[in-house]
Every structure is written in C-alpha cells, then in structure tokens.
Amino acid sequence: MHRTFSRACAALAAVLPLLASCQQDPPAGSGPYAKEVAKAVPLIEKSMGLKFKRPPKVEVRSKADVRAFLEKKFDEDAPALEMAGAERAYKLLGMLPDSLDLRKFTLSLLAEQVIGYYDPATKVLYVVANGGTSKDAPSSEILNITITHELVHALQDQYISLDSIARTRGDNDRQAAAQAVIEGQAVFEQLAVMLGNGNIGAALPGGWDRVRQMIREGQSTMPVFSTAPMLVQETLLFPYLSGAEFIKQYKERRNGGVPYASMPVSTQQVLHPEQLLDSVGNKSATSVPIRVRLPKPNGATVIYENDLGEFETRLFLYQHLGDVGIAAQGAAGWAGDRFAAVNTSKGAGVTWLTVWKSAVQAAAFRDLMERTIERRYGVVQASGGQGESRHFAGKKRQIELTALTLQGHPVVLFTDVPDGASTKVIDVAKVTFDRP
Q1: pLDDT tier for residue 239 given thresholds of 50, 70 and 90
Q2: Do the domain assignments include residue 133?
Q3: pLDDT band at 280 (very low <50, low <70, confident <90, very high)
C-alpha cells in the first residue's frame, strides 16, 4: 500500500490529559512559535542524544496553504500512474473495495487533520497559523504536540535523508520499515519529552499497551479515517504503532542511541525487533528478506509490481479469514515476496510469489490461501484438488495455487486471472532471488 498519508499528529490527542507538563519555559528566541521551539529543542536533543546541526526553521501558513502544500507533496511522492497501479493491484488481491477511488480518498485523509508538516526538501516546519485562536486552528496542546513531533523529523533529517526514504520505489516493504523508524521515533521521543524523558510504560496508567490503544482511539475519532478500508487504516497506523514499539525495543537493548546505522530492511524486522537487535556479531541471526525478481509475464503486460512484506501478508490473511491470530501466525514464516498486477487478453489478473523460511511454513500458508480462495470465490471446500498445484474456478475467475521448492527456497505461487486466460502468467524457472 502506498504510504503517503498525513503526517499530522492528531492521533495522539487522546494522551493529552495524562501528559500535563509543569516544566518552566526557557527563554524564547525569535520567529514563529519561538517559545514552543525553544522549549522543545533541548528536551528532544537530550532524549535522542543528538544535537541540531543548525536551528530548525519554522514558517506559518494558513490551513488552506498547508493543505495545498501537502497535496503538492502527495502528487510528487505518489505519481498518478503509480497510485492507479497500486490501487488496481490491491483490488485484485481483494484488499480494497472495487468502488474505492484511492487517490481521492487519500487526499481526503490529508485534508482531515492539517496541523503541521516538516518538509525535507525545503528544511522547513510548516505550521497552521493562529493556533488556538480560530475554529479552524488546532488547540495549543495539539499544536505543541505537533511542533515537538515535527521537530524530531527536522533533527532526523540532519542525520539521514528523509527525502530519499520518501522517494523509494519498487520496494514497498523496505520503505514501510524505514518509515516505521522515522515516524516511530518521532512518536516515542515526543512522548518521552512530554513525560520528562522518563519510562513511558511506567509513567502511563496501563503502560505501553495503553499508549498503543490511545493512538488507535485518537485516529478512530476522525470521520474520514473511520470509514477507511482496513488496509488503509492499518498501513497508516503501522509506522506510528509498530514503529514506536521498535524504537522502544531499540533504546532498551542499545542503552539509548539511534538506529540509523542499522535500519530495519523489512516490516518483519519491525514486527520482530529481536531478529535485528539480537544479531550483532552473529550475521546468521540477521533476518534479511530474500528479494524476488519476477520474469517478464507470458502473454500479458505488467500494470504494477511490488512486494507486500510480512505486515501486509498478515493484513491479506486477516482481510479474507477474519482471524488476527491465524493471520499473524500464517505470515510469521515470511522470507520474501513479489507480486505483479497484469493485463491479459481477457482482462486484469495478479500473480504473487511468496518465499518461506521452511517447507512446513510454506505448506501452512498454502493451506490458508486455499481457505481464502474458497471463501472469496465461493468454491467448494477441497475442490482445488491435491498435490503441488491446485486449481479453482469461481466468479468468472481461474485461480492456481502452487507450493514448490525453487532454487532451494520453499515458495507458494498464487495466480488469479479472468476466465479464458492462462494461469501460467510467469515461468517460475525464470524467477531469481537475491539479498540486498
């Protein structure tokens, strides 16, 4: 799922009653929101263990100006053809409703809570004007949260290139992992600052689980977000929730510090931080995903190609099977994947090759995929046959599901095409694997 969504921090509004600060304000400098910036900067530097190399720049814009700016950035980060391809692919995978206009809906999400935004291209933190003084402006509390959060991004950008991360193409999983670090760190450090750099889990009633719950509750109060498909909601929340949890684990295991030198390269490493953080000095323990390269399709043209990663594989299973535990368990053995939405002579189809850590995990995933096909297409249970390849027909579609060993790797190949089209969209013998 393309991850260009609002960077506003209204999702954290629910934690405000618990985060009142009694610290005295330091002297303010000059410029917009100088008092808020002067207060936040030393606290952020202390919590992160990094110093601003240059003072953060803040500019005030109207809500309409900030919205227009975000829409312009959205157009740059999510070109129309790429967004249309992603939309088609996720609809073919059954993860978005056919009636959804993804671009239009995402822009409505951008407009829902426009408070502030740090732009890596201009190195400026843009904030809505007249905070707390008009019905369209945020309260002073929300404004302070936003400024602190976006100042973390400004500091990050002085040590790593946020702009290059945003413009990553063709590796959705790796981009999602990087964004989880970026947004997760901003959430974690924002909370740490507001709690006086104490133990967040210990300082809040209910601990860290309560933090996650409050972030979810904050987002669910937004009208547009609350109507979003599950895929959109979860991919929007992932960088904030799982990313903050990753940063928490990193700081505990690394005695503070920042993860920029050893960024996670997959959502699997974000979901299971120990796979990255426990691997120092033991390269064999590092969970580096296998990168899959699909060959040119047979008798078809590619509409869009990318990967899902463990996180979106989990969402795929949950979307179709409705069980969180089964979805998490079924995706846990993920080792790599690649999908392609294609145009055949009979219409659009999709082929998706997943790689697994063991043959047992591949077989378990194949069984879950078979259940998914039966539910989604209303086919009779076990009608796909037995053996390595199983074939299904339903709702004017032909589906093939194959589990095999390919170049020593257990894989599962799922292909869904219109009636009359060949399910042999790709030649599996021409699939190649490598590691980054």
Answers
A1: very high
A2: yes
A3: low
Tell me which of 219, 248, 277 is where a domain ends.
Answer: 277
Q: Is residue 364 located within the same domain as residue 251?
A: no
What is the rounded distance in angstroms from the CA atom of residue 414 to the CA atom of residue 45? 48
Task: Domain count for the chain, please give it.
Answer: 2
Q: Give strand pairing partners of 410.
A: 405
Q: What is the pTM of this model?
A: 0.89
CB atoms within 10 A of CB 387: 8
Beta bridge partners of 88: none
Domain assignment of residue 376, given as a range? 291-434
Question: pLDDT tens across 335-362, in order?
Answer: 999 999 999 999 999 999 999 999 999 9
Burial letters for 220-258: b for 16+ Cβ neighbours within 10 Å, e otherwise? eebebbeebbebbbbbbbbbbbbbbbbbbbbbeeeeeeb
| 91, two tokens | 């609809």
Q: What is the DSSP string of 173-203?
A: HHHHHHHHHHHHHHHHHHHHHHTTSS-HHHH
**Residue 342 resides in a domain:** yes
Question: For residue 260, is it within any domain?
Answer: yes
350: left (phi over 0), alpha (psi -120 to 50) or beta: beta
User: Per the domain annotation, does 391 fall within a domain?
Assistant: yes
Tens-place pLDDT, residues 24-64: 444 444 577 888 899 999 999 999 999 999 999 999 988 78
Strand partners, 344: 347
